[in-house]
């Protein structure tokens, strides 16, 4: 399925770029056949009623205008699970993070709907995740483009070196605060944001603390992406509410493991 030669996908230079900047682009991580399959599967998964997956907002809602999102599709759809649980993708995350093992936290489909979407404001991901601080050094996401992306339909921008900034609060994406004002007491890197245009089937990996932003979608088609959040093996629960962990009766500092958080690579 996914290309088998990870060494051809991920060079030493790319690993060093990720370590230094908090993100990296990898072209053509999916074959043409994989891309076609995933494009079809994700459309079906987004339209199907949610069972174990979760739709985060309804059409017309404030969050929906930013992102039409469905979380943990792998639990409802075997076709999505094949990609989300793929050990080769997880092995890239393992190499980039320097972890001893990589577990799945969750997946989510992120569709920016056409015409009426809003930009995704600058934010970090890690403040939303119910993980103790130690995981913040290594948790990361893959963002797989299922359509060609540029500034017209919702490509992302990253702020290099911002993954070194900790202890910020999560941003309300529907009614955002300015993360740069929140972080005024710390030294923000003086780098210019980097815009990442990609062909469908390519991806980025970004650190959970890296500042990132996505343009609005001004085209007449949805901009589709599959995102998989990875965490280092041994990550523990910080006790805070989260759509994935609510109702699991987890105790503070308990390890996030088991069938809901499978080990994908080591």
Automatic annotation (TrEMBL):
InterPro entries: Phytyl_CoA_dOase-like
Designated name of the protein: Phytanoyl-CoA dioxygenase family protein
Molecular function terms, GO-annotated: dioxygenase activity
Coiled-coil ranges per UniProt: none
Keyword Hydrolase: no
Keywords: Dioxygenase, Oxidoreductase
PANTHER family named in the record: ECTOINE DIOXYGENASE, PHYTANOYL-COA DIOXYGENASE DOMAIN CONTAINING 1
Lineage: Bacteria, Bacillati, Bacillota, Bacilli, Bacillales
A Pfam entry, by short name: PhyH
Domain of life of the native organism: Bacteria
Keyword Oxidoreductase found: yes
């Amino acid at each position: 399925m996914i290309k088998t030669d990870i060494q051809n996908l991920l060079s030493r230079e790319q690993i060093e770029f990720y370590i230094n900047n908090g993100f990296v682009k990898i072209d053509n991580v999916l074959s043409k056949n994989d891309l076609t399959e995933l494009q079809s599967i994700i459309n079906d998964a987004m339209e199907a009623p949610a069972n174990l997956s979760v739709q985060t907002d309804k059409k017309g809602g404030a969050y929906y205008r930013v992102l039409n999102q469905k979380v943990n599709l792998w639990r409802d759809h075997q076709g999505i699970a094949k990609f989300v649980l793929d050990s080769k993708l997880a092995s890239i995350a393992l190499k980039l993070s320097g972890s001893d093992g990589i577990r799945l936290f969750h997946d989510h489909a992120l569709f920016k709907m056409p015409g009426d979407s809003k930009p995704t404001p600058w934010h970090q991901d890690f403040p939303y995740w119910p993980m103790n601080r130690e995981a913040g050094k290594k948790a990361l996401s893959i963002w797989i483009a299922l359509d060609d992306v540029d500034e017209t339909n919702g490509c992302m921008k990253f702020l290099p070196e911002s993954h070194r900034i900790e202890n910020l609060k999560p941003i309300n994406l529907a009614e955002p605060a300015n993360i740069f004002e929140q972080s005024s007491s710390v030294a923000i890197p003086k780098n210019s944001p980097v815009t990442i245009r990609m062909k469908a089937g390519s991806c980025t990996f970004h650190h959970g603390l890296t500042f990132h932003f996505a343009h609005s979608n001004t085209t007449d088609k949805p901009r589709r992406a599959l995102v998989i959040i990875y965490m280092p093996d041994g990550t523990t629960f910080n006790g805070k509410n989260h759509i994935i962990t609510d109702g699991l009766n987890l105790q503070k500092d308990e390890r996030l493991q088991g069938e809901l958080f499978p080990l994908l690579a080591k």
